[in-house]
Amino acid sequence: MERLRLGIILSVWCVCLVLLSAHPASGWHDRTHLAVAKAAGYESWYNAAGPDMAKMKFGPTEGTNHWCNNSAGVEVTPSFVLDQVKQYNKASDQEGHLYGAIIASIRAYVQDKEEGKYAGYHMAFCAHYIGDLSMPLHNVPYDAFNETRHNTNDGTVDLGVLNNIGMIQKNMYPIVIRDEPDLAREIARIANIARRLAAKLREENRDMTQDEVYAELSHSASLLRAVMFYAKRENSSSLCGSTSTMKSAQVSAPVDINRLARNIAVADHHESCVSDLFYSAKTADRHKIGVQ
After folding, report:
1. How many helices (H) and strands (E) does the chain have?
2. How far apart (Å, rounded) are the C-alpha atoms in residues 289 and 221?
3. What confidence tens digit (pLDDT) does each residue in 32-42 have?
4. 3-class DSSP assignment, residue 182
5. What is the rounded distance in angstroms from the CA atom of residue 212 to the CA atom of residue 209?
6. N or C: which end of the chain has fewer CB within 10 A?
7. pLDDT at site 24
8. Rg (CA), the chain
């Protein structure tokens, strides 16, 4: 009986060890995550490191949201991204589902806002995941090279990054997201940029330079800025209701013209914000900063 009990304890311990060690490395260090959020104009930038704290408490349930092994080494596509959404918060997915976690957290944000709940923490999780997206070693398997180099690369600019937000912002560029397919395409594009840099680091057996890190961070900050506009626009659109709902209202009851006008004004405001962001942003040399 004692042997049986000991065997059960050892078995459980081994399972836990496998789950916790599947991809134990952290992403960018805290100050780097905060800097990306500040560069993007995220009002609650100070929450952007929180998901790494949650990872310590909830283990792989949260941890698998922070990376994607992509063991097959395939090009990341929009469908690849969208297929991961259902894996959000699932510890059993040993491949990791960083890309799907970005979309799932935005869905949760929009849903809670529509239901009148506080949704801010969903955006904080999303901001963190978008930061991890540009970390090259979070887009490839956690092998010997990754394990050896990971911590050093996480902290390449961490010490001074909050004093150098401009280094991120100078390479930021406009992204317009109108729907989930747009978002999935942008996630896939940035993931592939990060994967190519990871392959280069492996081939040259080296760590990232500071310039390479700041270029990667600019991708995350650009996407986060676009996602914040997209999320607000989605929430504003829900205020107006669907076309069918409006038609039904015309038949069954008088339309509240004042309320309708207010809703349209809110939606137009956010639409103009997106347009202004796109057309008034500085013209960047997209090839120099790796935009494709």
Report:
1. 13, 0
2. 13
3. 999 999 999 99
4. helix
5. 5
6. N
7. 55
8. 21
Reference 104, options 118, 91, 76, 123; nearest CA is: 123
* Higher local confidence (pLDDT), 213 or 20: 213
Per-residue confidence (pLDDT) for residue 268, from 0 to 100: 41
Tokens 């709902």 locate to 245
CA distance 156 to 208: 7
At 154, the amino acid letter reads: D
Residue ranges per domain, the chain? 26-280
> If you write DSSP's letter for every residue of 120-157 in order, what string do you get?
HHHHHHHHHHHHHHT-GGGSS---HHHHHHHHHHHTTT
Residue 2 confidence class, pLDDT cut points 50, 70, 90: low
On the question of pLDDT at 273 being above 60, the answer is no
List, as own/partner pairs, every contact residues 35-38 make where C-beta atoms lie below 8 angstroms and the sequence separation is at least 24, other chains included: 35/161, 35/162, 35/164, 35/165, 35/168, 35/217, 36/127, 36/130, 36/131, 36/168, 36/217, 36/220, 36/221, 36/224, 37/127, 37/131, 37/221, 37/224, 38/162, 38/165
Q: What is the pLDDT of residues 154-199, one digit of tens each?
A: 999 999 999 999 999 999 999 999 999 999 999 999 999 999 999 9
- Right CATH number for 26-280 from 3.40.50, 1.10.575, 1.20.144, 1.10.246? 1.10.575
**Sequence-distant (≥ 6) Cβ neighbours of residue 138 within 8 angstroms:** 27, 66, 67, 68, 98, 132, 194
Torsion angles phi and psi, residue 164, rounded to 5: -130, 40
Q: What is the signed CA dihedral for 74, 76, 79, 83, rounded to 10 degrees?
A: 80
Question: Which two structure tokens, joined as six digits, stand for 29?
Answer: 């260090």
